[in-house]
Each structure stands twice: as structure tokens, then as C-alpha cells.
Amino acid sequence: MNMDRKETESEITFIITEELVAHNVTFLVNEFTRFARNDSRDAIIDLAFVQKINSMAIAALIRFKNMLAESGRSMHLVNTNETVLRVLEVSGMEKFLLE
Fold first, then answer.
1. DSSP category for residue 71
2. What pLDDT score does 82 carry?
3. pLDDT, tens digit, for every residue of 3-35?
4. Which of 59, 64, 66 is nearest to 22 (CA)?
5. Would you list the DSSP string of 12-34?
6. For the CA atoms of the chain, what is the radius of gyration?
7. Which residue, among 59, 66, 67, has the nearest Cα to 93 in the 3D structure?
8. Residue 20 pairs with which residues in a beta bridge?
9. 3-state secondary structure of 38
10. Please, what are the domains in the chain?
11. What's the pLDDT at 99?
């Protein structure tokens, strides 16, 4: 899976450039876990290039947001397209993940 990063002193932006589906979730979980354990910054997840997302990826995003919240940090999703937003709405997680 390809994922670019833009970093500032206070946050990192993960720019996901592929679909967020089952075969990419392990990579995503590993990257997010490593970041949550070894970094103190907030996270932004840029979904501008994501055309598809499934429940496994949504669960990974929820876990990541919760991991960061435990240490007083935040995670925000940005640039969600209509398709991804609709999947988040159907899952009932759009308010939690987009707040």
C-alpha cells in the first residue's frame, strides 16, 4: 500500500493513495500503531485519493482515533469524497470519525 506523509511540528498528514479495503488494512494498522506508540503529534488522514473503503478499514480508523485520544491527541479525516462519506454514514461512524 502506498501512503505519503506531510509533517509539521504539531501534526502529520497521512495521504492515502489507494483503496481502504481488506488487503490494505494490515499495513494501515501497522503504520498507525507505530505512529501512536512512537510519536506525540496529532494525525490527519487525507482521503482525497480514496475511492473505496470497507468496514475493516473503518474499524482501523476508529481504533487509531481511540489510541490517539488515550494520550490526549486527535485524528481528523479530511477530503472525503461522496462515496466514502456515504459508507461512513451508512456505518453510523461519520460523526465520530469526521468530528
1. T
2. 96
3. 999 999 999 999 999 999 999 999 999 999 999
4. 59
5. EEEEE-S-BSHHHHHHHHHHHHH
6. 12
7. 59
8. 53
9. helix
10. 3-98 (3.30.750.24)
11. 83
Residue with the three cell numbers 485524528: 75
What is the pTM for the complete model shown? Answer: 0.93
Three-class DSSP category at 94: helix
Looking at residue 1, its pLDDT comes to 84
- DSSP notation for 41-68: SEEEEE-TT---B-HHHHHHHHHHHHHH
Contacts by residues 1-9 (CB-CB < 8 Å, ≥ 24 positions apart): 1/27, 1/28, 3/27, 3/28, 3/31, 7/41, 8/41, 9/41
C-beta neighbour count of 59 within 10 angstroms: 14
Read off the pLDDT of residues 34-53 as tens digits, 9 standing for 90 and up: 999 999 999 999 999 999 99
d(CA 47, CA 52) in angstroms, rounded, equals 10
C-alpha cell at 13: 498528514
